[in-house]
């Protein structure tokens, strides 16, 4: 399967992927675009600019296209993550959704499963004081809308995981047929 783990920053995506990588040794992990771009010398603004999120969106789509036929892949983030950031960015008016949506839809549909890691009522990840919690919450809400309401008719299965790390891992493994208990849409 081709699986992308998606969610706002500091929601537990990378931790979940690390655990899944240990439990699914036949899966290859593709690092998130931010880290790949940074390794290539891309310099991000602080806080990230609209162009920074556009660059991550481009890279995320390229990664899905490069590996379109590859099976057993875990992607750290999906194009929808960056769509969430772009739609909530203070300069979101400069983002032309209609221009980007056909390609976003096309590459997202190459995935078999989107694992959504939302912020929970009792936040499991401590947010450093210097980070913008309002932006994090806005992105989480936007992603929940995009993934669970499917306003862009993506047609990809979404598994929303919750609970402690071990429970989240068990939910994904159950969906993959490696255990029991799941929460999904479609």
TrEMBL record:
Q: Which residues form a coiled coil?
A: none
Check the record and name the Pfam families matching this protein. Answer: AAA_28
Per UniProt, residues of the NadR/Ttd14 AAA domain are: 2-161
Protein name listed in UniProt: AAA family ATPase
Species whose genome carries this gene = Pyxidicoccus parkwayensis
